[in-house]
Amino acid sequence: MTYVIAEPCVDVLDKSCIDECPVDCIYEGDRMLYIHPDECVDCGACEPVCPVEAIYYEDDVPEEWVNYTKANVDFFDEIGSPGGAAKVGKASHDPQWIKDLPPQGE
Ligand code: SF4
Ligand code: SF4
């Protein structure tokens, strides 16, 4: 089990959550951020600071966004488990269906 970032983060990328994570397991993609499912220690520190309520405990992801649980896994197909987002920096990719989402927000 892990925490998951869902659709409200897309095109927002405000990054408040990154500062809260004690294990630096929140990674930056092109259009959203992703929580590493193996590196997350389930502390919950990130969830309340997200200004758009994009972060959910895996069991609590709203039905409409359950696909994001998989997106937070698939994002790491390319980069594996680096053990810290700071080392990696911003990635220029997202899972294909995230890339294909229409622009979010007004
Ligand atoms: S705080 Fe929320 S919107 Fe900002 S990057 Fe983290 S998950 Fe995305
Ligand atoms: S739950 Fe804790 S360890 Fe997991 S991403 Fe959030 S702040 Fe990091």
What's the topology here?
Layout: E1 3-5, H1 16-20, E2 26-28, E3 33-35, E4 55-57, H2 67-74, H3 85-88, H4 96-99
Antiparallel strand pairs: 1-4, 2-3
Descriptive report:
With 106 residues, this protein is an alpha+beta fold. The chain has 4 helices and 4 strands, in the order βαβββααα. The chain has helices at residues 16-20, 67-74, 85-88, 96-99, and strands at 3-5, 26-28, 33-35, 55-57. The strands form 2 sheets. It has a two-stranded antiparallel sheet with strand order 1-4. β2 (26-28) and β3 (33-35) form a beta hairpin. The protein is globular and about 30 Å long. The protein binds iron/sulfur cluster (2 copies). One iron/sulfur cluster (SF4) is lined by residues 5, 9, 12-17, 33, 50, 52, 54-55.
What is the H-and-E element order? EHEEEHHH
Give the strand line-up of the largest sheet: 1-4
Q: What is the 3D shape?
A: globular
Give the integer mean of the pLDDT values. 96
Which parts are unreliable, with pLDDT below 50 for 5 consecutive residues or more? none
Largest sheet: 2 strands, antiparallel
Rounded to an integer in angstroms, the radius of gyration calculated over CA atoms is: 12 Å
Give the structural class.
alpha+beta
Quaternary state of this entry equals: single chain
Keywords: 3Fe-4S, 4Fe-4S, Electron transport, Iron, Iron-sulfur, Metal-binding, Repeat, Transport
Region (Disordered): 84-106
Cofactor: [3Fe-4S] cluster; [4Fe-4S] cluster
Pfam families: Fer4
